[in-house]
């Protein structure tokens, strides 16, 4: 049985999101190329060919870009993506939809089996939370691949 004194020592958790912008100034995402340009602007070009990273573009109901979040940074051949982290950030920002992105340090834009599996897993998670996963983009400094453009979303 929990003593009354012990219950008073539970930590309070608060979720906050403090945007520093006017909604009218946010860029509207209308294509995979729009998303790619925003992602590329947030990628460290000194690391794009060195380490694999996974990021998420958070979108409003009107497809305005609320922000970009770094989810994970790994090694040369992969990175770990935790769906709990992806959706905690999306919920915190009140995103209606998200676009996934990761880079291939090799510069190869072809999808891997692991890429397809994480896309499917995140898409299913988004459906449960009513957060649409619109696209998954593989980013390189020379170009990109879009699941959505290829009809895979």
Provide a quick synopsis of the model.
By secondary structure, this protein is α+β, with helices and mostly antiparallel strands. The chain has helices spanning 4-7, 32-42, 83-92, 113-129; strands at residues 53-59, 65-73, 97-103, 132-140, 143-146. It has one domain (4-146): Cytidine Deaminase, domain 2 (3-Layer(aba) Sandwich).
Per the CATH scheme, the topology name is Cytidine Deaminase, domain 2
Biggest sheet architecture: 5 strands, mixed
Distance between the termini: 50 Å
Instruction: Tell me the count of domains.
Output: 1
- Per DSSP E runs of 2 or more residues, the count of β-strands stands at 5
* Low-confidence runs of at least 5 consecutive residues: none
Strands of the widest sheet, in order across it, are: 2-1-3-4-5
Structural class: alpha+beta
Mean pLDDT: 90
Looking at CATH, the homologous superfamily is Cytidine Deaminase, domain 2
The secondary-structure element order is: HHEEHEHEE
Radius of gyration: 17 Å
Q: What share of the residues lie within helices?
A: 25-40%
Counted by DSSP, the helix tally is 4
Shape: globular
Q: What CATH architecture do you see? A: 3-Layer(aba) Sandwich
What is the beta-strand fraction? 15-25%
């Amino acid at each position: 049985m929990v003593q009354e004194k012990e219950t008073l020592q539970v930590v309070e958790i608060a979720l906050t999101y403090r945007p520093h912008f006017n909604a009218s100034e946010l860029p509207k995402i209308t294509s995979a190329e729009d998303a790619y340009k925003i992602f590329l602007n947030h990628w460290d070009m000194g690391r794009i060919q060195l380490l694999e990273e996974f990021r998420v573009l958070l979108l409003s109901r009107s497809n305005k870009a609320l922000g970009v979040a770094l989810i994970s940074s790994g090694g040369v051949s992969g990175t770990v993506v935790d769906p709990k982290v992806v959706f905690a950030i999306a919920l915190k920002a009140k995103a209606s939809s998200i676009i996934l992105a990761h880079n291939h340090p090799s510069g190869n834009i072809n999808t891997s089996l692991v890429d397809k599996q994480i896309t499917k897993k995140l898409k299913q998670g988004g459906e449960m939370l009513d957060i649409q996963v619109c696209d998954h983009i593989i980013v390189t400094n020379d170009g990109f691949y879009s699941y959505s453009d290829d009809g895979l979303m």
